[in-house]
Amino acid sequence: MKKILMTALAAASVQVAVAQNSAVNSAVLNHKNGTLDKALADINKATEHKKTQDKAKTWFYHGVINQDLIGHPIYGKVATEKTPEVVLQSFNKTIELDGKDGQFGKQVPERLEMLYGQILNQAVEFHNNQDWDNAIAKYDLASSVNPTDTTAILYAAYASTAKQDYSKAAGYYDKLISVGHATEDVFKAKIQLLQAAEASDDKVMASIAEGLKKHPNSVYLMQEELRYYLKNDRAEEAMDKLDKAIQADPKNASLYAVRGNLQERKGNLDEAYKNYQKAVEMDPNNFDGFFNLGVLEYNKGSEFNNKAAKMDYATYKKQGAKLEAQAKKHYEASLPYFEKALEIQPEDQATLANLQRVYTRLKRTADAERVGKKLKN
């Protein structure tokens, strides 16, 4: 009698277990058959039942079914704005219960990769419609799905910039740096955003210093650092820093170009000229050296020209021609520098504009028109 009772209890136990798992199995079957609305109803029941709510299989299929609703031509309307978050939470729960190497846990990465693309597509759609808040929210969610991918972070920065939330945009560049995408352009963009947000000089200079640790030869970062040194009456400190850098790396053309820029800012034009010359000697393709040499020569020519223009008629008749000849000499001297700079950077707008001015001064009308056609209005 005792043996019969135990057998009956065992049979009852099997029936209960089957009943408990029927919602999950039904969800899986309906998902396989493509009836996602029924699959969703079944799997939602399973997540709430005490016997199945802690099973990895339950949460994996809860994620799969919800994910397959996204963008579905028939059942897409069943999905909500929160569906991608639900999917992410479900897959995270799967990993929590099953581990990364479990039967269901090992299937999660492929599904997360798919989810990242789905959310990113939604973000781009909001972005294209200039719905910046929703775009940023979706980029953030995509980034939480794949924290090491830089695409969502970068586009969140673009959207924040378009929204004119410059501080937030700068924060996204910080995030890019933290995941190893610490390019010179990233630091440049971050610094420009901090400046647009009117951040304190100390905060901007800290970012510049951080950038220079990664990119010690960045002309932009060096020049920005020097600009802030000058702004804060630290010119001598800046010059001392540059001199030490050149001593440590005497063949670095960029350092000479930056020192020339600093000397120019201080009004020491002869020293600036020498440093720019040194830069182009060290590196025949040093754009900054050639461009600034051209500017120095052009400005000297303009000084003579302006003097002649300010003379009264009697004085001009005596001295004007001589001054204009000196001006022409400097304009002619600036020309090869600007032409070389353009050869190095063929699309640089400042170089094209300066070349147009020089050609005009030298009455080379055809050349001025040719260069002018490349200028962007």
From TrEMBL:
Protein name: Tetratricopeptide repeat protein
The keyword GTP-binding is annotated on this UniProt entry: no
TPR repeats: 219-252, 253-286
Keyword Transferase attributed: no
InterPro entries on file: TPR-like_helical_dom_sf, TPR_rpt, Ycf3
Signal peptide: 1-19
Record key words, sorted: Repeat, Signal, TPR repeat
SMART domains per record: TPR (SM00028)
Domain of life: Bacteria
UniProt-listed SUPFAM superfamilies: TPR-like (SSF48452)
Stored Pfam families: TPR_11 (PF13414), TPR_8 (PF13181)
